[in-house]
Amino acid sequence: MEVVLNKEYPVAAGLDASWSILSNMHELATCMPGAQITEDIDATHFKGSVKVKVGPAVAAFAGTIEILELDLTTRTLKMLGKGADKSGSSASMQLTATLVAAENGHSTLQGHAEVIVNGKFAQFGGRMMTSVSDMILLQFADVFSQKAQAVQGAMMPEAAAEGASADAITGASADAAGGANGFVRTAAPKAPIVATEFNALGFAWLMIKKFFANLFGRKA
Questions:
Q1: What is the CATH number of the domain that holds 106?
Q2: Buried (b) or exposed (e) across 47-66, using 16+ Cβ within 10 A?
Q3: Are 146 and 37 in the same domain?
Q4: What is the 3-state secondary structure (H, E, C) of the chain?
Q5: Could you read off the pLDDT of 63-105 as tens digits, one per residue?
Q6: Which is nearest to 141 in space by CA: 26, 22, 44?
Q7: pTM of the full predicted structure?
Q8: Residues spanned by the domain of 11
Q9: For FRET with 3, which of 55, 133, 155, 180 sits at 20 to 30 Å CA-CA?
């Protein structure tokens, strides 16, 4: 079974701050409820895991992610996630995510995903799969926006930085000060911003398993 998802979410931060999240696989993974990168195989290949709670039940999934393209000019990420579970079901998802400028100095995250599911998960149908995906992706988009806002808030124009005292600017790095965007980075937020583990109603259990199988495949 193949399902195509086309989504668009507002991000309350500019393109530069938003791109710093989209282009960082570790930061991007923590926008997904319960997900994380567990191993960097190389610059474009990763292993990941995700935990999903449904009442007292907890499921853990693991699999691989490959970055197919990372284009700063168009601010586009293309990636492939795939895996299989113990039952023999398999899934893959090819995702294209692009950032475009929006009003008021904000940006918009546009996503196109092609998901292929084989095995028992395919029997539940595209409509239910899309419904559960929507719930998860809404939380993903909210955390993504929060992260981008935090990055933007930790930056200030060089002109303003020149007039500020040294005590007012903390954690500035030499490479950030000379960056092409002309920003000086200040201290990062103390508490990391991450998505919480997804907790759904019992009747949605199998659909949630199927969604995460699309990304990672079940952990052995």
A1: 3.30.530.20
A2: ebbbbbbbeeeebebbbbbe
A3: yes
A4: CEEEEEEEEEECCCHHHHHHHHCCHHHHHCCCCCEEEEEECCCCEEEEEEEEEECCEEEEEEEEEEEEEEECCCCEEEEEEEEECCCCCEEEEEEEEEEEECHHHCEEEEEEEEEEEECHHHHHCHHHHHHHHHHHHHHHHHHHHHHHHHHHHCEEEHHHHHHCCHHHCCCCCHHHHCCCCCEEECCCCCCCCCCCCEECCHHHHHHHHHHHHHHCCECC
A5: 899 999 999 999 999 999 876 666 566 677 789 999 999 999 9
A6: 22
A7: 0.70
A8: 2-154+194-215
A9: 55
The token pair that represents 37 in the structure block: 């990168």
* Residue 177 and residue 127 share a domain: no
**Is the CB of residue 180 less than 8 Å from the CB of residue 158?**
no
Question: Contact at 8 Å (CB) between 115 and 91?
Answer: yes
Q: Which has the higher per-residue pLDDT, 185 or 99?
A: 99
- Do residues 181 and 102 both lie within one domain? no
95-111 pLDDT, tens digit each: 999 999 999 999 999 99
Residues belonging to the chain: 220
CA 117, 119, 120, 122 torsion: positive or negative? positive
Handedness of CA 71, 47, 35, 191 (dihedral sign): negative
